[in-house]
Specification:
The protein is mainly α and 168 residues long. The protein has a domain of 117 residues. 35% of the residues lie in helices and 0% in strands. The chain is built from 6 helices and no strands. Helix 3 runs antiparallel to helix 4. The chain starts with 7 loop residues before the first helix and ends in a 31-residue tail after the last helix.
């Protein structure tokens, strides 16, 4: 059957519409961390969270963990990854409430237990699967949790690939 050029505009429009309608499905499997697809997280602000959590490490965007993970973490600050990060009750309550309200979805805890390390989430592993092991051993990086070593705008919630510089 020969190609009918009269129907080409209709067929072309139909193909474009179908492809456009399938586009949202391409992102349906992605975790809900990245608001705009550019590695930027909407980072709500709380002065105590920024001060207390940011005193030892970057104040991680709350969306990187689900609410249950933040609840468990805030209830164990006396043993916060080998450090006593205890806070007075009022400050802990304020920060905990903030983290829970701004938390991400619950897609991380496949084992049934809350994930406490952002570096253990499937999202983090997928985003960093191309990073060679030698990068994590670099004295300027030290650990995968040291986001600011490579992500130049991590403090602003921008983890986009355009703002990455791997230390030499």
């Amino acid at each position: 059957m020969p190609f009918n050029y009269r129907n080409f505009p209709r067929v072309f429009a139909l193909v474009v519409l179908l492809m456009g309608s399938l586009l949202p499905l391409a992102h349906a499997e992605e975790d809900d961390y990245d608001d705009d697809g550019g590695g930027r997280f909407a980072v709500a602000s709380n002065a105590k969270w920024k001060t207390e959590c940011g005193a030892c490490h970057v104040a991680f965007p709350p969306r990187l963990l689900p609410a249950e993970s933040w609840r468990v973490m805030m209830s164990g600050l006396d043993k916060h990854f080998g450090t006593d990060a205890s806070l007075d009750a009022a400050t802990a309550r304020e920060i905990g409430t903030f983290l829970e309200k701004q938390s991400g979805g619950g897609k991380h805890a496949f084992s049934g237990k809350p994930v406490l390390r952002i570096t253990d989430t499937s999202w983090f592993k997928r985003e960093h699967d191309e990073v060679p092991a030698r990068v994590w051993k670099n004295p300027k990086v030290k650990t995968p949790a040291n986001c600011t070593a490579c992500h130049l705008q991590a403090e602003r919630g921008n983890y986009g690939e355009r703002n990455i510089r791997i230390p030499k």
